[in-house]
Amino acid sequence: MNNSGSTGGTQSMRRALGLLRVLAQHQEEGIDLQGVMAETGLERSTAHRLLACLLEEQFAERDAKTRRYRLGVDSMQLGFAALRRTPLLDALRPFAQKLARLSGDTVFLVIRQGDYALCLLREAGSFPVKVFTIDQGERRLLGVGAGGLALMATLPDEEIAALYARHSASYAQIGASSAALMKSVRQARASGYSEIVDTITPGVSGVGVAFRVSELTWVAFSFGAISSRLDAPRRAQMGALLHAECQAWAHDYLEK
């Protein structure tokens, strides 16, 4: 049996999937053809042919003014469909329930979606006063909320600066200056967990930890509680607990 056609088809598929990953990494600012060639190692004709196919099938789009490429509508629809039921989400759900039992507080799971953090799960703990500051399926800018701040802390400083510039008006509305965000980011990097105190919802505090679940994907868990329950000593205690639990879970998951 001649496998040359199969091999060629597999190679084309791998190239197309690699190209989609590159577009995903540059979803906010877009990427031009030269950038695609540099990051994928594809020749100009091959990169152009694959991009043309993705454009035709609406898995990519190109800005007419900047000539930069991004993921298209159909790529996003696949992503949204996958988030409704995935092996990753199935694996994370019992872990979220465990964290809720350990802490007694509300547990939130968010995933990075471009400049935003999308809430995938929310689990209530046993403490009588519940904190539901974000609903499943809702998204917020990175840096807003403990989970979003933990995700922001994984980014290079220059990327954070560019992100802030793109959404400066929205950050200003919640009183988040660039300097204040960077201070919180540096604290999160140093301690291993993020902290928010009365910044989004008065009387509510939280701690968050981000970790990688694939080459491109970061998620974050956070605890949320009323500030009188989550005071400074308990934030340190719960931040350390969350960091240890998330690191252990991620290690086991990535080793499978």
From TrEMBL:
Residues 10-73 form the HTH iclR-type domain. InterPro entries: GAF-like_dom_sf (IPR029016), HTH_MetabolicPath_Reg (IPR050707), Tscrpt_reg_IclR_C (IPR014757), Tscrpt_reg_IclR_N (IPR005471), WH-like_DNA-bd_sf (IPR036388), WH_DNA-bd_sf (IPR036390). Coiled coil: none annotated. Residues 74-255 form the IclR-ED domain. The keyword DNA-binding applies. It comes from the Bacteria. The keyword Transcription regulation applies. SUPFAM superfamilies: GAF domain-like (SSF55781), Winged helix' DNA-binding domain (SSF46785). Keywords: DNA-binding, Transcription, Transcription regulation. This is IclR family transcriptional regulator. It comes from Achromobacter anxifer.
